Amino acid sequence: MTAAETVNRPVMTVPPRTSVLRRSALNRGNGRGAWLFLAPFGIFYLAFLLGPTIWMLITSFFNTSTVRPGLGSFAGFANYAEMLGRADFWSAMWHTLQFTIYTTPPLVILAFVFAVLTNRMRRGQWFFRLAFFLPFILPSATISLIWVFVFTPGSGLWATVESGLGITPGAGVLASPNTAMIGIAIATVWWTLGFNFVLYLAGLQEIPRDLYEAAAVDGATTWEQIRYITMPMLNRTTTLVILLQIIASLKIFDQVYLMTSGGPGISTQVALGLVTNTGFTDNRIGAASAASVLLFIVIIVIAVIRQLLDRSAARKAA
Amino acid sequence: MSTTTAPRRRPKSPISAAAPAASGSRVGVSGRTFTIVSAIVLVVFAIVWLIPSLFALKTSLSDNGTAALGASAILSNWNPTLHSYAALFQAGDIWNWYLASGVTSVITAVLTVFFASMAAFALSRLQFRGRNLVFLLVILGIMIPTQVLIVPIFQELGAINLLNTYWSVIFPQVPAVIAVFIFKQFFDGIPRELEEAARIDGAGLWKVYWSVVMPLSRPVIAAVVILTFVGVWNNLLLPLFVLSNPNLMTIPVGLATVQGSFGQRYADIQAGAILAALPLIILYLAFQRQIVEGVTGSGLKG
Known about the structure:
By secondary structure, chain A is an all-alpha fold. Chain A has a single domain (about 75-315), classed as MetI-like fold, CATH 1.10.3720.10.
């Protein structure tokens, strides 16, 4: 999950405000003007977003390759059948799920706890924001280099702490197929917690103060206030955080590529890693496109679920 | 942002807190204990969260020999040296990488702001046939996961001979649909009276956009510029595959590529990691509020 993805992750739109528009003096005979304003963005949109999406769909039905020009021979659903029948495809999907299972609970619970506690602090909020949010804006290359070094077998910081706690450090977190994904998950939680932390802080600002005042007058303890006011009021943020984390997990690539390259073996290989290996190492564009389309469908389904939940929440609020 | 959730009954001094009080004391005392415990928990976690970065910084300020001995040697070494930073700057690659990251991030941010705000202006202010179709495309575009398009985008850039140019990193990142959305939401909130007045004075559409709407939109322009800049600077996937010339690589790709050749020079590696992040850390310290608000805004809206 990078800042770029952050930029890429929202929302539903507002219906056109026709009544206002019709009144507006701006709206007389400017159809062509509108298209001129849309054109620059539209060209890039078609060339680098919609175009590649359509091309990906097409090539997924062909034996397209980087080693010869053109689409190649028609393959029908063969690429899809191949992918769905390949053990490494399912293993990549499983690792994605594994990564989601490892990262989501700490990212939700810790971010919630840190935000609630930070929000109570009368002094030093800037320090907690800095500590928890700063890692989020670091490049994936930086966080990967830091954590690979922290996880250095034997003498790294992690191993040193383990020895200090009386645990015998093993071959290294990232070196064993059983723990490599845990290592990637730890680095990721450290890296992206700040995003959820600021989402929760923003959510906390929206809770009306009088709720707490009323509760305090009724004699509710601090814990009761958190349990019966803060937590329910932040439900919507929690749903959002979980869905965003699932989408981010499906798109995970950077940390895996940089920290383990999918290894040891294929024990941490994820969907996008499989796509790039198939496309750029095996030169099989058609098969890579089929895998991309499958991943694409899963992500869109979750994005649509998010929109639907958002809408029903908005309707409830209205 | 202040302590919205702080309990309302807060003893004014430790003495009044300790003193047995009448009704409501249970709230006050437990609230106070809670505050102290939570402060301790929070400080401990904040320190845990800072340790990896500080450890990297400490390593980068050691010599390579010490860094190779491991964490305890690094932490007990009190002779900081800038040797690793000097070595990286002398080797020269890092200058090319900074240039590539800077050029691609700035140009993408500028193009995105212009093109996205123009499109948003049309969507917010103008009536035209096909408007609903454009809306549909905007919503679709927000949901398309661009990372998944890496293979077709690579093919396309190859077909138009842009591989191994800065443009291959810039162009695919310009259509950030969320930027259109952010601008449109902001434009929708700008009162129309000013524009109507300008129109009556004979101003054309471009003049309304450029001289009336855009000057009122500085906060949102700043947010989009910063978020785009950070996003492009941090992107790994796209530049990793479209740039193979080491002189053109952006800093994350450059570091990832030469990592292997650094061997045991751990201090140099950590110095590289910190240099890759340095401009963003400076940007964050300078524009903390805009960055946090932009990030929450793009995540929360809707």
